[in-house]
Amino acid sequence: MPITPTEKIWMNGELIAWDDAKIHVLTHSLHYGMGVFEGVRAYETAQGPAIFRLTEHMERLHNSARILLMDLPYTVEELVEATKLVVRESGLPSCYIRPIAYYGYGEMGLNTLPCSVDVAIACWPWGAYLGEDSLTKGVRLKTSSWTRHDHNTMPPASKTTGNYVNSSLAKVEALKAGYDEALMLNRNGLVSECTGENIFVARHGKLLSPPLAAGALEGITQSSVMTIARDLGFVTELADLTRSDVYIADEMFLCGTAAEVSAVNSVDDRPIPCPGPMTTAIATEYHKAIRGQTDRYKDWVEHVS
Asked: pLDDT, tens digit, for every residue of 66-120?
């Protein structure tokens, strides 16, 4: 999706013009993929723009960096305030937000220990990642030929820039084959996640989602959906899933910051009822929660003003 520029980007502690947010071609992370990032959304509310679970996202950014032995030069609290500043400066009622930390210019080679760490936060308007009708129409999935990272190969618990080469290969493969998204399996053949979304499958009245041990990212949207599902009375668990479980699912949906809640209508050309009753009920509550319309989840939104 094309990026719509906004006025300012926060880089290393100050706001600079969008077009001035540049890095050198010899920036370390450009060559070796050692960086961490987040995807966050701000939504329009009655009290102005509010960012969904902002503190949790910045905590996960710190955790990702910790896994990589990357020392971030800003605290969670400083990054939270910087993000609110960027959104306020944009003047946008709602937007997508991309914080990123990376090793900067000045050192080359695989040793990251002498490298400086740079941090940037940008925001821009961005619609539903899998399409505006992805909840009602659903998306078509294809099981990827690419295997999801193993925990001792590339740590899937860290939202690392280089990890997404794996996701990009799977995504493009699916798109070129005429599908909307790729289903990724781990080295044991168990369902892990999609290229940028967690997976939920309904079987025998239960709602199941692959755990971190299966190679799935510990999703903040996933956690939100599980809370909403349980509050609605649905039995919801983290559990291993096979391809066969997915093929005969009673219903299925994906979730993530970019994709929000998106129904699945088929996997490898096996039709799945879409959208299912659980999917519809959860999506309805989720869309209220992210806009601060539900008192039960009011702590999930952080107003920028």
From this structure: 999 999 999 999 999 999 999 999 999 999 999 999 999 999 999 999 999 999 9
Domain ranges of the chain: 8-124, 139-289
Cα dist. 199→182, 237, 256, 264 in Å? 11, 12, 9, 10
Give me the helix-helix angle, 54-67 and 76-90, nearest 10°: 130
Tell me the three state secondary structure of residue 29: helix
| Locus of tokens 């699912």 | 249
Assign a CATH topology to domain 139-289. Answer: D-amino Acid Aminotransferase; Chain A, domain 2 (3.20.10)
How far out from the chain centre does Cα 113 lie? Answer: 28
Nearest to 193 by CA among 228, 149, 155, 152: 149
> Is residue 206 annotated as a catalytic residue, yes or no?
no
The top-level CATH class assigned to 8-124 is alpha beta
Overall pTM > 0.85: yes
Catalytic residue among 8, 142, 159, 171: 159
Determine if the peptide bond prior to 2 is cis (ω within 30°).
no
- Write down how long the chain is: 305
